[in-house]
Write a structure and sequence with these properties.
This protein has about 525 residues and is mostly beta strands. It is built from 3 helices and 42 strands. The longest helix has 17 residues. This is Ig-like domain-containing protein.
Length: about 525
């Protein structure tokens, strides 16, 4: 018996030793997208009259993000019901919830919404097409989307065609187009397919609420001014822009005993604010607010205001009249002066003082600017009312330390408050701490244009306005060492600012070009570069 047990033990050990070691796996990873087995009705069916569509797959699939991914062209008033969503299934069922148009080709582009259930492998851009007529329309139009101002275009841009025979501009605000597509995610190219021969107007929207209607206040638009004829071999570039908001202001709120906050929308460049005294309009002082996140102006209340104040806001084709009751609040804002931009100034930067209240006058005889060795430095001053800045212009020396002393009464604000004794120290940088950038623009055929140097945050740090061909060589001195990009826009109306478009007026935005080359500016280095325009 013992001999038998011993032999059995040896056999067991040998069996275990011969067994292959390893872990149980589920087989090779699935890398193949789902395959359609059949559809009912079949894809590209003509004379379609049904209400339901069923699409069968070779394996379990999952439908996700269908509301964002599914593009139906022409768009339907009532969205179809698509089931199942989120759960595993070997089929998709589509129920149409409205009557179809006669002799029309419909396409359902599912984008990236259909995926393999286990591995999430998408069945990319699956398209189901049918026609209620005797043939399927097969014409196309394609192009790409750019942003008119930014270097990067939006994703999920809706591109639309409107029938030219029945077109007017109000349709873009109120009605759905006859054909649509969407660029979806991380794609700027578009292609509208299954179009009927004819003439159309081409429009694109960053359609935030997915209703295929333009909301001018919140959405970007792009358009082709002339109608297009399909079939066509042309491709189209559409430049998305946000329309400049029309000026609008909101009822002022009392912030302190001598200050109101005035909220606004749009461009306040030409705004003027008044009050009435003896039926005569008297200007009110105002500036931008530093402490509010939204667009807000701070309007200063004159000393002689009593129980209420009449605030009149005027701009181009805009006028609004407010009456604001005054009451005793916290202390009125008092005059405070600080050094703007800190104690270290770059070589080309001018020194400025920031004030908390509007400045009535400056007495330069009570201001003394000296170098480290106490040598006096002559200067002039300039007041920027909107920014509430006092800027000093003087001959700057590199690596120099300066002191500015303000005697009492050097600055007086609108409330007859004068400063006490003030002293500020600041330093100018060394020219060797900065770099220089020389740019030569080749093939410039349109003038004027503005060339701007952008830092890594997209802020303009330097610019040059070019009005003729002899000015296409530009030199930017004392640039902070960093990496920069250059952009250029053609200033059609010669106002030296970039202007957006307007859909109603059929104005395109001014053309903006971003040069792809990034420039590495180093301390005490010169960069010389040629930039070529197409």
């Amino acid at each position: 018996m013992r001999k038998f047990i011993f032999i059995l033990t040896i056999i067991s050990v040998l069996f275990i030793s011969c067994a292959k070691r390893g872990t149980i796996t589920g087989g090779p990873k699935d890398t193949i997208a789902p395959v359609i087995v059949k559809s009912n009705p079949k894809n590209y069916q003509t004379n379609f009259t049904g209400k339901t569509i069923k699409i069968d797959f070779s394996e379990y699939i999952k439908v996700k993000d269908i509301n964002k991914q599914l593009i139906i062209s022409p768009p339907m008033e009532k969205s179809p019901t698509v089931v199942p969503q989120g759960s595993a299934s070997k089929f998709i069922s589509i129920t149409l919830n409205e009557d179809l148009k006669p002799n029309t080709t419909y396409s359902f582009n599912f984008g990236q919404s259909i995926t393999d259930y286990n591995e999430g492998i998408p069945y990319s851009q699956f398209k189901y097409v049918f026609s209620t007529g005797t043939f399927v329309d097969s014409l196309t139009v394609s192009g790409n989307i750019k942003d008119a101002f930014e270097n990067k275009a939006d994703d999920y841009v809706t591109v639309m065609l409107y029938d030219a025979a029945n077109y007017n501009d109000s349709l873009v605000y109120k009605k759905k187009p006859v054909y649509i597509t969407n660029t979806l995610e991380k794609n700027t190219a578009f292609k509208i397919e299954n179009i009927k021969e004819g003439e159309y107007y081409l429009v694109a929207l960053k359609d935030k609420n997915n209703n295929y209607n333009y909301q001018a206040k919140s959405e970007k638009i792009a358009f082709k001014k002339q109608k297009i004829k399909i079939p066509t071999d042309s491709t189209y570039t559409l430049r998305l822009f946000s329309e400049k908001s029309e000026i609008k202001t909101y009822r002022p709120t009392l912030e302190s005993n001598n200050k109101l906050f005035l909220g606004y929308e749009g461009d306040v460049k030409n705004i003027k604010i008044f009050t009435k005294k003896n039926n005569i309009e008297t200007p009110l002082r105002f500036s931008k607010s530093e402490n509010k996140k939204s667009d807000t102006l701070q309007v200063f209340i004159p000393n002689d205001a009593k129980d209420s104040i009449n605030v009149i806001v005027k701009s181009d084709n805009y006028s609004k009249d407010y009456s604001v009751k005054l009451k005793k609040l916290k202390e009125a804002d008092s005059l405070k002066v600080s050094l703007f931009s800190g104690k270290q100034f770059s070589f080309n930067e001018k020194m400025s003082l920031k004030t908390t209240t509007p400045i009535k006058k400056i007495n330069n005889e009570k201001i003394f600017l000296r170098k480290k060795d106490s040598t006096s430095v002559p200067f002039t001053t300039e007041i920027n009312d909107f920014e509430q800045l006092i800027t000093f212009d003087f001959k700057q020396e590199e690596d120099e330390k300066y002191t500015i002393n303000l005697l009492p009464g050097a600055i007086e604000d609108d409330y007859n408050t004068k400063n006490d004794s003030l002293k500020f120290d600041f330093t100018k940088g060394s020219i060797s701490d900065f770099g220089n950038l020389k740019l030569r623009i080749k093939n410039a055929k349109k003038f004027p244009f503005m060339l701007e140097i952008l830092n890594s945050s997209g802020e303009v740090v330097a610019y040059n306005y070019c009005t003729k061909e002899t000015e296409t060589e530009m030199y930017f001195e004392a640039i902070q060492p960093s990496t920069y990009q250059v952009r250029l826009y053609f200033d059609e109306n010669q106002n030296q600012i970039w202007d957006s478009g307007n859909f109603k007026m059929k104005l395109q935005p001014e053309e903006m070009i971003y040069f792809p080359t990034l420039f590495d500016v180093r301390a005490n280095w010169d960069v010389d570069q040629e930039l070529e325009l197409d």
